[in-house]
Amino acid sequence: MAHLTALLSVSDKTGIVELARALHALDVTLLSTGGTAKLLAESGLPVTEVADHTGFPEMLDGRVKTLHPKIHGGLLARRGVPEHMAALQQHGIATIDLLVVNLYPFEATVAKPGCTLEDAIENIDIGGPAMVRSAAKNWNDVAVLTDASQYAGVVAELKAHGSVSRATRFALSVAAFNRIADYDGAISDYLSSITLPDADSAVPVRAEFPGQSNGRFVKLQDLRYGENPHQQAAFYRDLHPAPGSLVTAMQLQGKELSYNNIADADAAWECVKSFDAATPACVIVKHANPCGVAVGSSSAEAYGKAFKTDPTSAFGGIIAFNATVDEAAAQAISRQFVEVLIAPSYTEGALAVFAAKANTRVLRIAQDGIDRRAPNAWSRGLNSHDIKRVGSGLLIQTADNHELVSGHLKLVTKQAPTPAQTADLLFAWKVAKFVKSNAIVFCGGGMTLGVGAGQMSRLDSARIASIKAQHAGLTLQGSCVASDAFFPFRDGLDVLADAGATCVIQPGGSVKDSEVIAAADERGIAMVLTGVRHFRH
Question: Does the annotation mark 471 as catalytic?
Fold first, then answer.
């Protein structure tokens, strides 16, 4: 192969010595900077320090070391343009054919508690991005590696062909520009979110929302179409997705996921993973709303109870579990038409049952890396923010990650709920959080009995929930009810009482609260307030 020169300058040293050894074995000349050069030399590799290559010393505490014509000329010269090659020869500049660079850890630095503005500024890489841009621009002649995961493939091509293919060089260039965009976006997000402190060493005050939002997402796949066949669509993930989120799912069988499959699967998964993993839970979603939710002693029992809530709506639904799906659960599920099935794990017997349903999309979402006790939402496997597109703009809010416990409840009626009723109230409240507003959820015995969703009137949602329970042959006598927001008048409460409810959980906060509470006392209903509402539009 033609003689090649590689420049290696990395902050993250993972795999760099092994890469350098492989390149040296292929007779590639090695250039390097600072700590990378020292590491390679200590590893017994022949390496030329960039300062010796350029004839100009590193200066300004390392801020200037690769910003030199002998570096950028060697990267940017187009080999097929005689004038470029003549200019290199005139100025004694050698070509650089392979660039290996990863950047100062800016994102990791600013994520640390107590990060000062000085720490952040000093971790803004200048020379690295400049070299990466030069090499990526000249991808026809230069291969640029910005991540250790790229090393093995490039070495394999060099060994097999003596060069890096044009297709690979272009793919590496795209990855390089994407990395620079991500890096610059992170810097912009950070700097435009802070208030400058008076002292250089002080920790900056960081706003929740930056002055400029630079969303960074990676495409997972193109979709056949969007919500409707005339719409185009694609599926993207966060640059750094939360552990245990839908985008980390592995599809074990079935057809390609559609736009609507993914939207509904996310609704089901987010709801079911809000339940304690020690108790099997099942959520059935149709058109973004839970139509059946239950807990049980097993996944099979949880599914059976959830299905009873609304067997009609469950047809063609999305089913999610927070526990292992075994053969018994699989046998029960296989009796209905299911679009998507989601669980953290499956037994071999369950997978064998689903194999007979070739069109059923079976997803497994690993729970590795989730820390339910972590202070930040990301580590708990939760979204930190929600984003909604509006005309030429975005609405961004912190995600609704509020978790209610019994100690938060405020009893406002003469009648108090029993311990069993309190458990059902908390269950109903958890489900209501994932139902489109206005949301009314009847439940009892760890299962939903009737769900009213997405109505313009809370009164209509209450009526619909009651009607759905009747259609499913379920009694609401003695049931518990959750309302995602306050009752503006007593009429909604009367509908619940007439249906058979005996206790209600709601946020409170209406100017008519006293009237609603008096109505509850009149009807012999126990009522607790949460002080928190869960609108979901």
Answer: no
